[in-house]
Each structure stands twice: as C-alpha cells, then as structure tokens.
Amino acid sequence: MSHKTQISRRNILRTAGSIGAIGVLGTQTAGASGNGPSDRYIVGMEPGRAEEARDAASEVHREFDFGDIGQAVSGYFTEAALQGLENNPNVRYIEENGEMQALEQTVPWGIDRVGATVLHEEGETGNGADIAILDTGIDSDHYDLADLIGGGKCFTDDCCGEATGGIFGCDDNDNECLEAWDDDNDHGTHCAGTVGAIDNSEGVVGVSTEATLWAGKVLTGCGSGSYDAIAAGIEWTADQGFDVASMSLGGDESSVVKDACQYAYDKGVLLVAAAGNDGECTDCVGSPAAYDEVIAVSATSEDDSLASFSSTGPEVELAAPGEGVLSTVPTETSSDGLETFSGTSMACPHVSGAGAQLMANGYANTEARQQLRDTAEDIGLGDNEQGYGLLDAEAAVLDGDSDDGGDDTDKAPSVSWVTPSDGDTVSDTVTVQIDASDAEDSDDSLDVTYTVAAGSDRSTSYNSDSGYYEDDWDTTTADDGDSTLEATATDSAGNSSSSSIAVTVDNSSDDDGGDTAPTVDDVSVTENSNPSWSRYDVDWAVSDDDGDLAEVTSEMIDSSGSVLDTQSSSVSGSSASGTHDLRSKSSPSEIVVTVTDEAGNSDSDSQSI
After folding, report:
1. How far apart are the first and last CA of the chain?
2. Nearest by Cα to 40 from 89, 86, 87, 75
3. d(CA 19, CA 39)
4. Does an H or E element contain 56, and which?
5. Collapsing DSSP states into helix, strand and coil, what is residue 96?
6. Measured distance CA(97)–CA(31) in Å, rounded
7. What does the pLDDT look like over 271-330, one tens digit per residue?
8. DSSP state of 548
9. Which site among 37, 145, 513, 580 is 20 to 30 Å from 329 CA-CA?
C-alpha cells in the first residue's frame, strides 16, 4: 500500500474548521471533562492499526473502519499523545474535529426544468431506490414525506431539540421531535422534498416520488456538524446499502470525510454534494463536493444563468436549479409546510433524485454518474460553472428520446461480458459469451457484435441452451499482448449499448523452459520520511517475454550492505506493476528491485538515495 501522507506538525489542524454542519443519526456525548466536538481530534491509521490511536486517546468518541482505505479514531488526546502519534509510521493523518455547515439559504422551482415531470408521466418514480439525506434531519410526520421515509439515525452530539447554539449561535425551529433524527432546522426537510416529495396532489412534487428516504442527521438544529458526525453518516449510508447520498453541506477539507466518501463510493453509493455558496468566486468549490468521488453541483437561476451565490471551479460536474426553489419544511415553520429557499443546497437534491431514478433502473453508481454527465444540457456557461451541463433528468433516464407510446421502447439494451473476463489471459480458441437483453426485444433478436483491438465487427449467434450470444474466437490471429474487446448490442429500434474488457493474448510457446530472463522496466522512488522514520514508496514495472513472471522484491539497503527492510509481491503473466512501502529507523543508501521468473531467471535495478 502506498503511503503518500507525510506526518508533520503542519498536518495537525489546530483551528476549528468553519464548515456547514449536517445532522448525523446517533446521539454522542462530550468528553468526561466537558470537552465538546471541537476539542476532539481524529487520527487516521493504516488498516488494522486503530488500536495504536485508541490506546493513545484519553477518551475515544467514535471509531471508523474503511476497509483497505484505513481506520480512524475520533477522541480526546493530550498534547504529548499527539506528539507521539506524529512520529508513528502507521498514522496517515491527524486533524482537529472541525465542523461543516448547511449552505446558506438565499432563495430554487426546477422539477419541471430538469424534465422530472415527464419521467413521472412515463412511470419513472425512483421506486426501489434508497436515498440518504445527510443533513439536519427530515420532518418525520410531514404530509408530503412521511409515507416515503424508511427511517433514520442521528449522528450529531445534539439530536433533534438539543441544539444549544454551538459556536455560531442559533435558534432552532419549534418542530416536534418525534424522532432523534427529526429536523429542527428546516434545511434537511427542504432538500428531502426536492429529492422526492410524494405525488399526492398536495404540497409539491419531488424528482423521485416513490424512492425511500432515509434521514441521516449529521447536522444539528444550528445547521452545523462535526467531521466525525458527517463521516459516520456517510459510512452508515454505505453499510446500509443505500443507493444515493445527498449532501447539501460543505466546508473545509477533512481527511476523515474524504475517507468516508471513498469508502462509500467503493461500496457502490452515488455521492452528490452542493458546490458551495461562496460566489461570486473562482475555484472555490467546498468539500465534500470537491472530492473525486463526489458529484459537485452548482446552482442556476430560472433563466439558466449561474446563480450569483454559486461557487464555481474545475470540480463542478453538473448544474441544477438552485434559486427560488419551493419545497417542504416542517409545519411549525410554515402553516402549509412549504417555503422557498435558494442555494446550491437546493440544486444538489435535484441531481440526487435523478441519480436515484437511474439506480432504481439497475445502474451502478459509476454508470449512473456517467449517464448524468453524458445527457446534461449545455446551457452556455463556462466549464467551471456548469461542468458537463445542466441536469436533464428526462434525457438521463429515457436516453433523451421521446416515447409517445409510453412503453419504454426507446431504452437501449443492456450488454455485458461473460467469457472471457476482464484481465484474463487467453490463448488458442476461446468461446466468447456475451449477455445481452432488452425490455422490448426477445433475447435472441438483438444484433450482438464484438471487436478485438478496434478491428472489424465479429458476429455472434444466440445459444438458447446457455442463454448467451456466442462465437469461437481464434486468438492466434491476434497479436500477443494486451487487447481490448468491445461488445455492442443493438435493438430493433436502433438503440445500442457497449461494454469493454481488457485481456492478454499469449500464444507464445515456452519450449526453451523459460530461459529468457525477465526485466525490471521501471523503478520510481518517492520519499515520505518523517523525523523518526525513513519511508519510501517504490513504484515498479516488470515484464517477461516468456510470460512466466513469479515474484518482485524491493529492498532498502544501507551503506554497509545490510538490508533494512524488504517487501515482496507474487506476480504472473508477461507484465506487472505495483508499489512497495519500505520503512526503517536507519538511513538507507539505495533501493534495489529484483524480478524473478518461474524458471529462476532474474533481473535487478537499483536507485541511490
């Protein structure tokens, strides 16, 4: 595993982050000494090393396990404990438990503008999708939302009705707290209504009118929430298997929130966040919207201009209606349970609702994200203002085609590879199997072809016994090495979809017993040392004409020739690459990388330090 973060005193954040808070499910208590959230620190650890931070804490508040990404411990630490952790090679980051806040509400209408009303007419309602509203909570008995709420959880120190003003000071609403995750601010309920207010002839209608809403109260009634509360809400969303996380919140960068976003994205969650309300500005998108795993949403006005308050920057991926948006609030705030707000907070849930429609239709999070990009409408704004364009929910879900018959005939077929699999090594003759289906065409009526390395189309025939489209591919007609296979399925209406995989063709004989030695093609060394440890990331690439790679070993050696640290990886095939992490408390003089094949042949390369 690569260790790119160098721990130093500048990595320890000493000032509270001034970012918008969002409610998280689950009440948390302050430290025994009366310390609050802003007195806590979060220590990010390598996988399996949380105990070292736990032992150093005077009190543990919350723990995270992000799998291969790493672990984190939130709690109270003495200055001496923090200094000790600074020199621990297993520490990835140390940050003060700052806060994020609900983005300021100034003035969004956009259900019709993004084409969601057409989707409802076509029966596309998001039914089957689960959406986590990570915000100030949701009014649990609102007439336009209650039938869609699946439940929730509170993650903030102050759950519904317990907000005391925080560092910003506030007056929460007077909403009756039937649940700990109820909304005592209005912000979360407003966002939930845009995502999916029910189509019941009352109030308003949302983008996904039959999706299940889950209240992740990560922000208090004051509209702010701690890093660990927000990260816990994101982690909960992933662990519950929800489809979408809608995050109308933002602020300064947080490592634990970024970890949580990567964790959730890797587990299949579509992450959507408000870009921020710092406009007019350039390159000012807040976090978590700025993270690679998250769709950052800017806000537009009714005339398709950029809302004056909207943050902009290269991270902006989509724009959506965000000014003068009518949506739901608790009836304690408004007698009819409706209010008009503005902000990128109001733009974000439009995209969340559209993403839920796609997820309900079987899209993976990465596929849904790409579909939203591919179908966005160019409204003439700059790339840093609109990203791929204005959200077009109708085009995203219906592939941009009208369907007067209402029978979904314009939807493209689905296609995927069965054999070979992505990453396989193939030789001789391979039976290609492709799975393709379409709602309007029978399984055996689709036109399914595939190409090898962007060559000519190869046809397939439907095998009723296997249920797949099949062809015998003579791989000896292709060049040895890496090759891309692309399958395309086309229905009777001319709609098509494609799916690609990469394989390695290897028809070379090995009659010489593997006598050709492998080679070390590239070695790159990156230093990540701190005052106590010598730490180096060793990126390597190796190859072997015989295709019988066996092992790669990296060694850290001092001036006397002694090996200070070593790491090995098993490899196979004709090429491989990877990274080794070498550490020592002594000073090395060189790094040596050695590759060995199955016949025992080897090659080495070294770099002086």
Report:
1. 21
2. 75
3. 16
4. helix 50-56
5. strand
6. 13
7. 999 999 998 888 999 999 999 999 999 999 999 999 999 999 999 999 999 999 999 999
8. B
9. 37
Least Cα distance to 74 among 224, 216, 260 occurs for 260
Q: What length is written for the chain?
A: 609
Where in the sequence numbering do the catalytic residues fall?
Answer: 135, 187, 345
CB 211 within 8 A of CB 129: yes
pLDDT digits (tens, 9 = 90+) for 462-505: 988 888 899 999 988 888 888 899 999 888 877 877 888 889 99
Three-class secondary structure of residue 445 per DSSP: helix
Q: What is the pLDDT of residue 441?
A: 61
C-alpha to C-alpha distance for 557 and 565, rounded to whole angstroms: 7
Q: How far apart, in whole angstroms, are the C-alpha atoms of residue 180 and residue 156?
A: 10
Dihedral angle sign, alpha carbons of residues 602, 603, 608, 609: negative
Q: What is the dihedral of CA 99, 105, 111, 115, to 10 degrees?
A: -70
- Residue 392: CA count within 13 A, CB half-sphere: 17
**C-alpha closest to that of 116 among 369, 392, 303:** 392
> Can you tell me the distance from the alpha carbon of 501 to that of 499, in angstroms, rounded to the nearest whole number?
7
The residue with tokens 């995989």 is 501
Structure tokens that stand for 486 in this block: 């692309």
CA angle 606, 531, 50 (to 5 degrees): 95
Domain extent listing, the chain: 116-398, 414-505, 519-608
Q: Which fold has domain 414-505?
A: Immunoglobulin-like (2.60.40)
Are residues 230 and 22 in contact, defined by beta-carbon separation less than 8 angstroms?
yes
Whole-number Å distance between alpha carbons of 47 and 68: 6
| Inter-axis angle of helices 255-266 and 227-239, nearest 10 | 10
What angle is formed at CA 168 by the lines to CA 163 and CA 169, rounded to 5 degrees?
Answer: 50
> What is the DSSP-derived secondary structure letter of residue 411?
S
**Closest to 120 in 3D by CA, of 193, 194, 198, 189:** 198
Fold that domain 116-398 belongs to in CATH: Rossmann fold (3.40.50)
The model's pTM is 0.60
* Topology adopted by domain 519-608: Immunoglobulin-like (2.60.40)
Alpha helices in 158-249 (DSSP H): 187-196, 227-239
DSSP assignment of 498-519, as one string?
EEEEEEEE-----TT-S-SPPE
